[in-house]
From TrEMBL:
Name of the protein: Alcohol dehydrogenase-like C-terminal domain-containing protein
Domain of life assignment: Bacteria
Organism lineage: Bacteria, Bacillati, Actinomycetota, Actinomycetes, Kitasatosporales
Protein's organism: Streptomyces albiflavescens
InterPro entries, A to Z: ADH-like_C, GroES-like_sf, NAD(P)-bd_dom_sf
Similarity remark: Belongs to the zinc-containing alcohol dehydrogenase family.
Keyword Disulfide bond: no
Length: 285
């Protein structure tokens, strides 16, 4: 699919020549393999906004929760309350977690996490250990998900960018023998990085701490097709309401620049581009 380097994706930065995806039409290479067929057209149309989340965000969040070891009765911390973080939190609930805690510095996004039963911590108040202890009675969790990535900020009020903050924080709060799922994006080239190391994707991570606690770390692009059929069934059979959890908001293709600008300012929405009106009148359920 991509002879230049591992991985390939439609329009994804630096991962192969499949250009575009946010357009009136998109070519789907190897469509007989890549497309997911819905079993019932009418049933699918009723859930179309939720099913749209299968294209990336829901499997990505689910991958983070699975690789972090979220399961029945587990305690899970998700760093980041953007769409992927919210999808990871909803996924941890789907997997049977007893308590899901979401951390962020954006009050609107934290409120969205609470709207479907998550506990929250405000990282603008400082480190997360004490806030987790207030919720759980202990300053650690069984599983942790990094849904922030390379643009992470330090904890505390008006904190500056500090790319390794989330990874180091998760190593501190994840129990010995636990795991970190890392769907958050890390890159090899960040021209806007705060220093030369950050610009090259080189982070000062406390690997010694992770080693001492026997942590497992899973990184990389989500294998969407590993999960999307099962998640489709969970949506169709009312086991999860992912569009509502991530506040999916439908806009026209011509409104994409506005959607990007609002999201960049911290809007707690997952914008869905609808170039042909297929989602007209559809709302999260």
């Amino acid at each position: 699919m991509n002879p230049a380097r591992p991985g390939a994706a439609y329009g994804y930065v630096d991962m192969g020549g499949w250009v575009g995806g946010q357009a009136e039409y998109a070519m789907v290479p190897y469509a007989d393999f890549n497309l997911l067929k819905f079993p019932d057209r009418d049933q699918a149309r009723e859930k179309l906004l939720d099913l749209t989340m299968l294209s990336d965000i829901f499997p990505t969040g689910f991958h983070g929760a699975v690789t972090a070891g979220a399961g029945v009765g587990s305690t899970v911390y998700v760093a980041g309350a953007g769409p992927v973080g919210l999808a990871a939190a909803a996924s941890a609930q789907l997997l049977g977690a007893a308590v899901v805690i979401v951390g962020d510095l954006n009050a609107e996004r934290l409120a969205q996490a609470r709207s479907f039963g998550c506990e929250t911590v405000d990282v603008s108040r400082g480190g997360v250990e004490d806030q987790i202890a207030e919720i759980l009675g202990e300053p650690e969790v069984d599983a942790a998900v990094d849904a922030v990535g390379f643009e992470a900020r330090a904890h505390g009020p008006n904190a500056a960018e500090a790319p390794a903050t989330v990874l180091n924080s998760l190593m501190g709060i994840t129990r010995a023998g636990g795991a970190l799922g890392i769907p958050g994006l890390y890159v090899t080239d960040d021209p806007g990085g705060i220093d030369q190391d950050a610009r090259a994707g080189t982070l000062k991570v406390r690997l010694g701490l992770g080693w001492a606690k026997s942590h497992r770390l899973t990184t990389g692009q989500c294998p969407v097709m590993r999960y999307h059929r099962g998640l489709m069934k969970a949506i169709l059979h009312e086991r999860v309401h992912i569009a509502k959890a991530v506040n999916a908001t439908v806009i026209g293709l011509e409104d994409a620049p506005r959607g990007y600008a609002e999201f960049d300012q911290g809007a707690s929405r997952k914008y869905v581009l609808d170039p042909h009106g297929a989602l007209e009148g559809v709302r999260p359920v």
